[in-house]
Amino acid sequence: MPVPWEALIPFGLVTVMFGAAGTLLNVSKRAQNQGKPVRYNIDAWDEMMMDRDKRLTGHKRGQSTNPFAPEGYETSSVWYTERADTS
């Protein structure tokens, strides 16, 4: 049974395009997370820690080794700025 060699060119192109798209998506997601892998299954604790990290460093994936919080950290919480629902 002969092999249709002319079908290998489109097959190779499709394979390369899927590989390039997946690689570029991975690079894009890692660039947005400061080179760290994407987080999955984020629960309430992780959300709270990401909010704290964002208030400390300015990025949700940033971490600080400074033992003291920066100026204004005490008042940057959304807890103090949200309005109470009186209805």
In words, what does this structure look like?
- The structure is a single chain.
- The protein is mostly helical.
- Helix content is 49%, strand content 0%.
- The protein has helices spanning 8-32, 44-57, 78-81.
- The longest helix is centred in the N-terminal third of the chain and has 25 residues, at 8-32.
- The protein is elongated and about 75 Å long.
What value does the average pLDDT take?
A: 84
Number of strands: 0
Determine the number of helices (DSSP H or I, runs of at least 4 residues). 3
Straight-line distance between termini:
77 Å
Short description:
This protein has three helices and no strands. By secondary structure, it is mainly alpha-helical.
Name its key features.
mainly alpha; 87 residues; 3 helices
What does the secondary structure layout of this molecule look like, with pairings?
Blueprint: H1 8-32, H2 44-57, H3 78-81
